[in-house]
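Quarterly update from the structural biology core.
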Amino acid sequence: MTRRVLYLALLLASPLLEAADKPVLVPDISAREVQIRYSFTGTQLLLFGAILYPGGRIPDRPANIAVVLRGPVQPILVREKDQIAGIWMNADSNRFRSAPSFYSVASSRPIRDLVDERTAAIYELGLRNLQLSPGGGALPEKEQRFEAGLLDLRKRQGLYAENSNGVEITGGVLYRATINIPSQVPVGTYTAETFLIDRGKVIAAATRDIQIDKSGFERFVALAARRHRFLYGLIAVIMSLALGWVAAIAFRRRF
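Predicted structure, tokenized:
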């Protein structure tokens, strides 16, 4: 009986013993919450932490770090404009069922030098490995064209970014990376993922959540638009008509 209990205890403890032989990431973020006010012009988030090696022994060949800050996924319709009869018009469109509203990756070395294509696709490391989930029904050439267009658009908006030398590792233990947050960043719960990579494999990972939300008058307007859509739309129309009427009166008096 005693031997059986001891055997069961060893079976239960084996995962913990195995985990003790692997390094552990201890990540943190400079701010767990970002408030967007009327004067918000963007900010920077510092993602930092430490690598805890078994027995405190740093290997002769230190591992590499990749950090990813990902916003909530959302459906998106991408429209393609073309010049028809001298006028730029919407010529074609493609819908994506889910795409990150924000995505930024920083690494100590280029992603292609850290992992193979399969591993990069599994962990969605790098812009070219994002799983954008197109709506389907379109030819592969069209989907690829619209995916490239979506990536280019969001890179120009500052919502997608990739920095192949954005992680600094000190002493093989401490790491830090800076992620730029643009002024037009969408609100929601963001996930900061940290990956420890060695010899082409992810050997440790950790996540932290960040809340980006509106505050003050902006929060009041956003909540009103979401909870009272009809009333919000009616007030917006009335305000537009009133401003147009005031502008017309001021224009007549001036001229």
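Residues 5-18 have pLDDT under 50 and may be disordered.
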